[in-house]
Structures are given as structure tokens and as C-alpha cells.
Protein 1
Amino acid sequence: MKTIPILFTFDPSLIIPAGVCISSLLESAEKDTFYDIFILYGESFSFDESYLDRLSNKYENFHITYRKVKGEFKGAYEVRGIPETAYYRLISPELIPEYDKILYSDVDVIFREDQARYYDIELGDNYFAAVDNCSALRPNVQKYLYDELGLNFREGYFYSGNLLINSSLILREGVVDKFRSLATNKYKQQDMDIINIVCNGRIKALNPSFCLTVQLYNLIMERRMDMSRIYGDEALRYALTHGTVHYNGAKPWQKPCMNMDIWWKYYRESVFFDEKMCHDFWKKQSSALERLSFVKRVKILLRYPLDRKMINKQ
């Protein structure tokens, strides 16, 4: 049996998507994979640990450990409704000393493959392994990196929603204190900016399958040749069919968004499925569609032939 430690940090408002996320993780596991799951949450939250206990009704290949974080980032900069729990990944090497290396994931994520292939990656002198956001193809991101962060996009700018953390090296070189010193700065991307500033040049680049964000999905679909030159076409096909889907924009349990069908599939098959929640969501979407003008409805319908052509190119 292979044990893979993985960390999640979230507040109680995300308990349902957290359950679906972890369900997809366990559902996609190989028979010999055991997930040692850690959940970090703030001391100000009233956290119902029993909710995720339902997972044991369907799966045996996991264990969950809950750890309360005591005001570590109180006063840290928050924006776009992202709470202080986003910063907890930065201090995870101190809070989870059991492992030299650990995976981290946001909970607005669906896993579609076993994570051993990523956990087994050798990190060397890199603090993290993560997925570059392809700023080479995104001029607006290049400008932000240069003007706001003083970074060169050619050195990579990496997503923090899915990480392989070199905990032992981070502790040994005192990197956590550097993270703490920047937490009150008003960075637009919060923890992601901090990681890229502090660890510039020491993040190992992974293929998009490790963290298939909305932006990367759009780039693959709309700029396939450019993305193929960077990753190769086989890696892109794998990301589209097996990649970890990260909803780092609109959330599928809140409103229609890209790849929402994948999230709803895993939700329906999970032990957390609630028929009433499903009914209320789709009734709301149907009502919203009915309120659209005729012109807007036609524009939506016209998108489908274009989408079909893109799918056929895969």
C-alpha cells in the first residue's frame, strides 16, 4: 500500500465542494493507494468534522486528520472573498511535520486520476512543483508580473491551487518566515503571489494535467498550436481527459461555468448528493434562461457549433 499525504484548507462555507473534491480523489485512487488527508481550519470557525465522515460509508483508503490554526494569519490581506485559510498552505511544513513532502489542493477541484505519479516526482532543490499559468501567451499577466511583482514571466508564474510541497527543504531553509513577512502585503493573488516572489527560480514546472485551470483549458481549446509547442500534444490530450480540473473562477455549484458537467457528475455520484440542492440549482438556472431576451438566447445557441468544432480537434 502506498501512502500519499494531501492537505486541504477551507472554511465551513466550502464543506460541500470539499466533500465532492475528496470524493473525486478517493474515487480516482488506484487499489494500492492510501490517502493520509490533513485539513487545516481557523480557530474562529465552527467546523463540523462529522460531515466528511460520510466518506467512510463508501471508501476505506483514507484517513482524515483535522488541525486547528490559531490566528496565524489574522489581519492578513484578503480580497475577492478569499479567506485567511488560503494562507495556511504557506505554513503547512510546520503544521504537518510527519512528512518531508506533501501534496496540497484547493477544494474547488475535481481529481480524475491517482496522484501517485505527481507525489513521486523528485523535487531536488525546488521548494514546490506546480503548473505555470502560461503567461508567455498572456500579455496582461506579463504586465502584472513586471509592474506589480517585479518578476520576469520567462521564469514562470505558477498556480498555487495544486502544489507538491518540499516541506523538509522549506523548513530547513527558513522559507516559512519569508512567507509570513509578506502576508500583510496587498497582493492581488495573495498566497500565489507570495509563493512566486519568495520561491522564484525554485519551482519545478509540471504539465497542465496537475492543475487544469479555466485559463489553461481555454488556452488549450483556443490556442492549441501554441500550447502544443510548449507542452506537446500528448500532454494536452491527457490534461483534457485525465487532468485535475480546477474551477479557479466561477464555481459550478453556484452558477453555470466551464467544465461544470464534470463537477456535477462527481457530485451526483458522491455520498453528499442532495436531490433538493440539485433541483433548486437547476430550477434557478432555468428561470434565469427564461428571463433572457431572444437575442441573448440566439447568441448562446450559436456558440454550440463552434464548441463542437473545437472538441473534434482534440
Protein 2
Amino acid sequence: MKEISGSRFSMACNTSWGIVNFRGNLIRQLKSAGAEVITFSPEDGHSKILSQAADSWTPVKVDGRGANPVSDYWTMRSFQRFYKESRPDLALHYTIKPVIYGTMAARRAGIPVLNVVTGLGSAFIKENWLTLAAKWLYRYALSGAEPVAFLNQDDREFFAENRIVPTSSSVLLPGEGIDLERFKAEPLPGKQKGQCRFLYAGRLLKDKGLRELVAAFKSMARPGVELTILGIKDRTNPSALDDSEISSWKDVEGLTLIPATDDVRPFIRDHHVLVLPSYREGLPRIILEAMAMERPVLATDVVGCRDLVEEGQNGWLCRPRDADDLAAKMALAVAEGGVDMQSKGARGRTLVAERYSDEAVWNVYEKLILEKLNYGA
């Protein structure tokens, strides 16, 4: 894309991990087109990787545990300094606080922005004063910052209904992009009826439904049924589980706890079903990765998950916050034969290939970026 060659793009998120894992492909696409990519995120275990993947990385403190006016003020000041010094041609923002405070700072610096609402997060799972504050801040920050990209139709409609961003000023982005060569179709491990290996891979949060998952597994535990929790600790999240509770799961027969990894593919390959009993999502990348590798998915019937999982076709849907219903759907997977399960997995990969590949996502980004840079608007 010759129009962006020589342009400078900034990318901001509430974790370095989020940029590396979800936007690494976008960084490579921009750099291959001759653009410079600078990044701005809190320091974590992936910051060094990010500094190597992008042209530069600058640390920022983002308090993810709620609304602290003092810390949020300094977050916005950090964005102001960053934009004053770096002067990107276009600023890309992901997750709630970079979207809100990054947009405010960019507006003051006269820098165009492209905001991606990756999900509504814990502030919107239960309506309270924090929800009202978040709505007001979104409304203020995003006024005049269109178009805004969303990962699912529910969130897009929510913003329109709450007069934050009208539908006419928003666009759907088909996820974060899946590399279909990297996440290749894999044959299902040998499976007999009565056997099943379930995999959860993600952050160790209450909002991910992990308490319900462990309770459901305990209620149906039997020889041949296993659960692996591949967990990422996120201490900045208000929904983070305590270490003591997580450690207690080590005593559950058939349950295996494994620390975070940068390559989830071997774990998807060795399991029959991915399970994600989350309370709310944007568009879960882990589901797309599992489907790309032809694994059926058991997820909750909530925003984000139901965009991808179709009951009986490529997986199963259960009620959120309902350990009994989750156990019942897990039992269906246990009872299913390998041939039927492989068919579900194949349908999942077809869906990803048709709608959520790297190419599909880049096509949308390309159009949005050119419009923001005043090419072909």
C-alpha cells in the first residue's frame, strides 16, 4: 500500500501483551507497507517482545482496576506528552482507557485517531456508577472521532442506543485476524464416547466464568474426562482471582493448571474442546484460534461468543453464570463421538477462513486507514 509508505502510526493498549498477541499481525502488515509503528503501553512480560516487533515502545501507566481520577489524569497527561513528542500521522487505540484518554490527548495535539472498541469489559457487566461514568467519558471522547470500529454487532448497537456513537459513524471489524497457515487444521486426538479433554486458555478472571467452570467440572468428573486451565494472571484487572483460590484447584482430580504460554497451538492440538464460559466478550481470539485448528468450542451465550459459536454446528452454547448448564453441555461433548466432533471442528474452520482471516481484517483496516489519511475518503 504505497499511500502509507513513510507514514508513522502509533498503537496504544492497556497491556503490551495485548498488542503483541492481538495486533502483532497488524504491525507486520504496516511495516511491510513501509510505515513506521511506535507503541505505547504499560510494561509487562511482553514489553521487550513488543519493542522488537515495533519500531519503538514507550511505557505508560494505566490503572485497569477502576476509575481513579488522579491516576487517570496522569494517564491522559502521559498520552499528551507522548503525542507531543512522537507526532504520529494516525493514532490507533485499543481497550477502554487508551480509547478514552488517548483520544482526548490526540484531539488536543491535532492527531487523527482510529479507535477500536475491543469489548465493553467489567464496567458494563453489572450496571453501576462506573458504567454511567464510562458512558459519559466514551461519549465525550468519541465525539468527532469517527468512525469507531467494533468487534461485534451487540457492542456497536449498545453504543448507538446510548447515543455514544451512531451506527452511521461506526464499522464492524472482523476480529483481530487469524493466520490460517500458523493455525492449521489439526486432526482430532483419538476420542471414544465417554472421553474428552477440555481446554480453557485465557486470563484468570472471575468474569471469564472460571469459578463456574471448575464447579461444573467437579460435578461431572470421571475417568477419561480432563480439564486443562492454561492461565494468564492479570493483576491489573478488577476481576482477577486470588492466588489462594487458583492454587486450590490443583487438588481437583483431572484438572491441570499450566502457566501462560506464548504459543497455545500445542495445547489446542492435544485437546478435544475449547471451553470459554465468559460473562461477556468482544470477539474472542482464542475461539477463532481453536476453530481455525478444527476444534469445537463450548462457550456462553453472551456477546462476542454467540457471534462465533452456533449450537450443534461448530460447538455448544450454555447459559452464563450457570455451572449446572455448563456441566450439561460438557456432558454432551463427552458423549459425542470423534467423527461428529471432527465435523463440528471443520465447520468452525470454514467460518474463520471465510470471515475472520488476517486478509479479511487487513482489508477493513486498509480502507479505514486510507480514509483517515485522506486517501480515497
Protein 3
Amino acid sequence: MPKSRKDPNKPKGVKSAYIFFVEKERANNNENGGELSFADLSKLCGAKWADMGDEDKASFVKLSEKDRKRHQKEMENYVPPEKSDSDSDEETTTRKKKKKTKDPNAPKRPTTAYFFFAADRRPEVKEQNPSYSITQVASALGEIWRSFDDEDKVPYEAKAAKDKQRYLTEIAKYNSK
């Protein structure tokens, strides 16, 4: 279901006791030079709030209750707008691009040198490390590939070039149909 636009006349939501606490801490931080970043201030506030007792939190809970009453009073008088004809689903949602359907008769894309290498070396890596997961095997193969010199990659690049030629001839034949 598409997300509808927010009514600007709808009353603001209820602030929790923690939100009132964070606002007070942020104001204190700004008065004292505001050296803390948002992330650092958030971590500090979370730790302080967790260490506070119920007596310390009571003033913030009272503010939250007062805000809850304000919200309830404003919601009693609030009437949401009716959905008009101009608010159709097509206009309010962003259109997603439709995924191109792949022709099953299209030629298979060329394999890269790395994939030829991985297919050649995967059994060897699995044999040396039988406890490795699929991702760990892939990571090990990547490490080996990156450590190769250009000379070590030549046989795999030759296979890739040959496969690319195969693809180019097949795609030309496919496109001419």
C-alpha cells in the first residue's frame, strides 16, 4: 500500500519522557559550547537515562503525561481531510521502473577471467579448508586472485577473451533475427 502524504494540520505526536530528557541534555550541551556530536550526545543520553532512577525520571514523565493530554485534546478537534479525486494512487506514488524481462533465447553473457579462475581453483580451496562456508571460500579465492601477478592471470584472461568472442558472434547472430 502506498504511503500517503502527511496532513500538515494533524496534531504533533506525543513526546516520550526520554525525548524530553534528550532535549534538555541537548540544550545543556549547546549552552556549554556544544562540543559533542549528535551520535556522541545520543550515546551519552542513553547511558544517563539507563542509570537514572524513577525519582530522577519523574519530572520527564510528568512532561510526557502533560503532552499526552495535549495530544488527546487536539485529536478530539481534529478532522482528517477526505481523500479527493485528485489524490489518486497513480499521482501520489513514485513509479518504479519495470524490470526488463530477459529473453530466454538470448546468448549467455561472457564469463570473466576471475570466474574462470574461481571455477578452476574452488575445489582446491574447499579441499584445503573443508570447514569454510561459501562466503569464506569466495573470500579466499578473491585474496588469491588479488595476489596474482599479471602473468599468472594470462591463461584465465585468454579463456575470457575466447568466451567474449563467442558471445559477440552469438549476439550478432541473435540480433540479426
Protein 4
Amino acid sequence: MFSEDQWNKIATIPDGTSNVVMVAECNSTGYKWGGFHTSGTGWKRAPNERVFRMAFVGTGTNGECCESGLYSKPDNSGARTGGFFPSNVANYSPSYLTAWGPKVEWPGAGGVHPAITMVLAADGSVRPASDSIDWPVWVQINARQDGVATPNF
């Protein structure tokens, strides 16, 4: 539903709003080492390996901050050279990539609930998606116009 370079109207969802994920939860540390094109195969990152997404704040290309020099250091001793975001953390624009299923890698979805990731469908309903959801099904429920209606996720 949301991407870094376009927006969509309800009319552009021919698969049905109850069959398309609009938003999925993500946690503040994310996951790592999960298999590409899989679901639920990653390990939770340690607190010192944190990643985050800022809601409605574009972070530049591929998570690289584009606001260098615009914000002050916390002690007011000058401008931050790395932008608004803390150093040594990965940041990403407010979206996730469906190339990874839930709880696989940090650019993908994955919340704090055991065995599930909560999703908001385009019709406004909130429901769980299993962390073991087949990756092709995950891709289908994240596509707004693939011709496949997959209501049971």
C-alpha cells in the first residue's frame, strides 16, 4: 500500500481491501540472519544492534540519512554530522521490504508477539500473520494488484 515513491487510492486495490496488508508491525531491534525469501527464520538482534524506522520521516536512500548537519548534538556543541539519528544504528524509511517475510531481517516486518506479526489490512481490520507464513503468500497479501485474493492469512 505504501512505498517510498507512490501512494494509492482504495480504487487501486482490485484484490480487495481485506486481502491486502497496509501496515505490519516492526520492533525496535529487528531480526538478522534469516533466509531471503523465507518467513520466521531470523534471530532477534541484541540491543546494541538496534535498528529503527521513523514514522513519516524519510531517511534517504537505503536507510542512509540525508539530513547531515541539520540537527544539533545533544549537548548543543555543534551540528551532528550523521543527521538526526544516533550513530552506529541502522535506520530505514517508514516502510518494510516484502523480500523478507516476518521476523527474518531488519528491513522486513516483525513484531514482539511470539509466533505472530500483527498486520493492518487496507480495510482497517487488524489480525495476526503467522511468522511461519509461506513467503509466497506473504508477498501476495502485500500486493495490492496481483490478481490473487488471499483472505486467510
